[in-house]
Amino acid sequence: MSTGQDSDPAHPATAGGDRPIVVGFDGSRAAHHALRWAVPEAESRDVPLRVVSVVTGDDRHDGPAAPHGAGHSVDAAVLSVEAEAERTGKSIRVESVQIDGNVADVLIAESRHALMVCIGVPWRDRAADPLFGPTAAALATHAHCTVALIRSDSAGSPPESGVVSVVLDDEPDNDAVVHLAMQEGRLREATVRQVDRRIDSWIRRFPDVHVEIVAAGSGRAYAAGQRGPQGTQLAVVGQADADRITELEIPNCHPIVGYPDCSVLLVRR
Fold first, then answer.
1. In the chain, where are the structural domains located?
2. Where is this region: Disordered (predicted)?
3. Crossing angle of helices 70-88/29-45, nearest 10°?
């Protein structure tokens, strides 16, 4: 387990081939949720967890991922991750960095060297509000790796229960998207709900993951040993949906928008 506080945005971990899980961290409650969500992602892949605090050039507190007492907050978060890892006997490498710049630009640059970029997304106060803010929209459109947008609920709590939802379709990246959704189901011990736009053999490949098959637009689930209605904690979507997700409005027939307040994992290639 290793840590480091550094103002240099270089990626020493990538020199050895370990592309990190990057968390945009501003000390907010949503950012803490995103950090906790990212810990098992890094641990399961045996890659570093890179905590990035962005300091803007104006007043050093502007923007959705700008630091609130950045140095102290990031240090405390890293110590918390380390303490939890030691308590559970898990091995995780944590590094932290502060970088001057625009929040979205910094995280997009980080995405060039990352396996995943993860940020916290606050609860939408009104149904008419956009699904995602400007930083999330920029990452959805321009990131060079998978993006995790971790939503908090109305009470400010993280989404720790519910199904993992994924669309089966004929997009060229769908195998990678479904594979990641199945891995998330295994990692988080969650049911995977497949919104059925095609038939394939993923269920047979992951017999230990409970899967729901849903006819797109029907809302009806078909699964052996049905466990009853569940909300959605995470939707996994591919490149085509990532490119247009910030343009979607409610109501909309797109199946992912049927779960507008869950977290979203955008698979970019």
1. 5-151, 163-266
2. 1-20
3. 40
d(CA 71, CA 53): 8
In angstroms, rounded to a whole number, what is the distance separating the alpha carbons of residues 93 and 3?
A: 7
Q: What is the pTM of this model?
A: 0.70
Structure tokens at 134: 């400007």
Distances (CA, A) of 155 to 124, 159, 199: 11, 11, 38
The yes or no reply on domain 163-266 and CATH 3.40.50 is yes
pLDDT in tens, 92-144: 899 989 999 999 999 999 999 999 999 998 877 666 666 788 999 999 999 99
Question: May I ask the CATH architecture of the domain 5-151?
Answer: 3-Layer(aba) Sandwich (3.40)
Peptide bond into 40 cis (omega under 30): no
Burial class of residue 223 in the structure, from the number of CB atoms within 10 Å of its CB (0-12 exposed, 13-18 middle, 19+ buried): middle
Total Cβ atoms within 10 A of residue 229? 7
